[in-house]
C-alpha cells in the first residue's frame, strides 16, 4: 500500500508538474501577448506625447507671431494715420495756394479733396471768368454803340444874342417857340 500511495503521490506530483508547466507556458504566452499588445500602445503613447509637444510648440509660435503681427498692425495703423494727416494738410495748403493764385475766381468755385479735383475746379472757374468777361465786353460794345455821342460841341441854332440889348434879349426869350 505504501507503494501504491507513493505511486499515487508520484502520479499526482507528475500531474501537478504538468499542470504547473502548462500554466507556466500559458502565463508566458499571456505575457508575450500582453507585451505584443503593449508595444503598439507604448508606440502610440510616445507618438501622442510627441505630437502634443509639437502642438504646444506650434501654439506658442502662433501666439508669438500673433503678438508680433498685432504690434506691426498697430505701427502700420499709426503710420497710415500720420500719412493721412500729412496728406490732408498738404491738400489744404494746395487749395489755399490755388485760391491765392487765382484771385479772379470766386471762393465757392475752387474746391475738392484731391489735387485733380482742385485743378479741375480751377479750370472750371477760369472758364466761368472768361465767359463772364466776354459777356461784359459784348454788353459794353452794344451799350457803346447805342449811346454814341458825337465828338466836339453841338452846333448852335437860333439867332445870336451877342449884339442885342437887354430888352431885346428878354423879348427874344419870352417869345413862344
Number of strands: 0
* Percent of residues in β-strands: under 5%
**Spans where pLDDT lies below 50 across 5 or more residues:** none
Number of domains: 2
Q: How large is the radius of gyration?
A: 61 Å
- Coarse structural class: mainly alpha
Strand count, sense and barrel status of the largest sheet are: none
Folded structure, characterized:
The chain is mainly α and 177 residues long. 80% of the residues lie in helices and 0% in strands. Helix 1 (2-101) packs parallel to helix 2 (115-146). The chain has helices spanning 2-101, 115-146, 166-174.
Keywords:
2 domains, mainly alpha
Quick recap of the structure?
By secondary structure, this protein is mostly helical. The protein has three helices and no strands.
Write the layout of secondary structure elements.
Elements: H1 2-101, H2 115-146, H3 166-174
Helix pairs in contact: 1-2
